[in-house]
Each structure stands twice: as structure tokens, then as C-alpha cells.
Amino acid sequence: MKDATKKQPAQHRFLDEMGDTTFYGKGRKLIVGETGVSLCFGIGILKIKRPLTEVRDEVSKLQKEIEEDPLFNTLPSVIRRIKKGGFFFHACKDTPDVRSPFLKYIRALPCEFEAVVARKIPPLFEKNHHAQENEFYADLLSHLIKKRVKRSGKLVLNVAARGSSTRDKVLTDALALANERALKRWTKEEIQSHVVFNVQTPQTEPILNIVDYLCWSIQRVFEKGETRYYDYLQSRIRLVVDLYDRDNYQDFKNYYDKQNPLRSINKISPPIT
What we know:
By secondary structure, the protein is α/β, with parallel strands linked by helices. The chain has one domain. It is about 35% helix and about 20% strand. The chain has helices spanning about 50-70, 75-85, 95-110, 120-130, 135-145, 170-180, 205-225, 230-235; strands spanning about 10-20, 40-50, 110-120, 155-160, 195-200, 235-240, 255. Strands 5-4-1-2-3-6-7 form a 7-stranded mixed β-sheet. α6 links the parallel β4 and β5. The longest helix has 18 residues, at about 205-225. The protein is globular, with a radius of gyration of 19 Å. The termini are far apart.
């Protein structure tokens, strides 16, 4: 008879962001939508439905193939990553021919992805986040993980390192806010998860390469109205929540899934100044 008290194995999820948290430049000038500054910010979370060691090995193998292929290893963007310790996939910097084999790999991979996206609305940023980028990040992350704190056992959130956003305090604040929101739906006894943050890089955790591509495919819809990559990977994208899409709040129409997919009309416009 199995020991019922035996600890459950830790569950791993993988997180990365899309866009940036920047609102203002020098002199408090609003620069949302200007060159190099995104119109929205989002965070995605990935669940892998295969042994993680196998997936890591497969991604590493694909990376090595790009690194050793003379068709690719002469590209400036590839050379730069090789010089920094080894090639890794980075969707916004990869050329279409480099992206192609990795996109095919992700489409065939048994996995499940969710994302929460926030349009950059200056009055909300001022009111809800006190014009603090770290508060903006923590708030969004809390929305993404609030339903996951209900699960029992240990939950390891492998988060892609991103400057001050992934410092311990920001992540701790996000978890506290997630627990606070979860308590509005469940009792304290039901919230049993032991959450641990593990800040990683694409070089140390190959699976984050997958998250990067999935995030990028969604960001292309919101920033450019381009659905090509999102459509291609849609079988792996379970849910996208457009958090501030107030025109579609009724009946959860701002929840985009296979029955209500993102379309080119989801492209957002720069804020009115």
C-alpha cells in the first residue's frame, strides 16, 4: 500500500513577459508607443505536459543545430548570442528562417499557455500603480497566478529575469496580492500551495525560449494586428486575458480562447495625449 503521506513532486511552470513596463521618458514625457516602447505589457505562463528533462534536451539540441549551421551562425544576431555564452532562441531578434524550426517544435509540443495582457493606460497606471513600474509588474503577475495558489503542494515558478521587475520584493509582493485575491474566492484552508520563485535566464533554462516565442506571438497581435504566429500556435494557447479591454468586459468577452480567438481588430492604439 502506498504511503498517503508521501510528498507530491513539485509542479513547475515557466513565465516570461511581453513588451515592457515603460510609460515615461525624460521630463515625465509619455512615450508609450514610440520606437522601442510597447503599447502593452503582458506576462505568460507555460505548463509542459512531458518530462521536463526531455524538453530541455530537445530545445538545447535545436539551439546547437542553429549555432553549428553555417547558414545561420554567420547572422549578426546569432553571432552576438554565441559570443555571450551560446545561442538561444529569441523571437523578436531571430530571422524568419531561424524561427521556423522552433515554431514547428512548439506547435507539436504537448503544453498549455496562458497570458494576461495590460494596455498601457496612463490614468490607470497613476491610480492603480502609483506610477511605479514594479507595482505594475507585480499587479499583472498576481492576476496570472492567483488561481494557481489554490493547488496543493509545491509550485515552482521559473521566471525569466528582467531587471528590477524580478527582484525578490516585487515577486513577493505579487504573491501576496495573488493570495489576497484568491481569498475572495476560496477559504484560507483551500489555499495550500507553497509557491517558490526561481529566477532564470534563457541560457540556464531552455524552456524559457518556448515561453518567449508564445509571448511574442501574442504581442504581435496587440502591437501590430498580425495574427499569423498566434494562429499558428493557437492550439497551445489556452487563454489570453486582455485585462483592461473594458469594451468587452461583459460576459468575459475580454477572455480570448479557442472559441473566442484574438483577431487583427485586437490591435491597440497609442494612448491619447
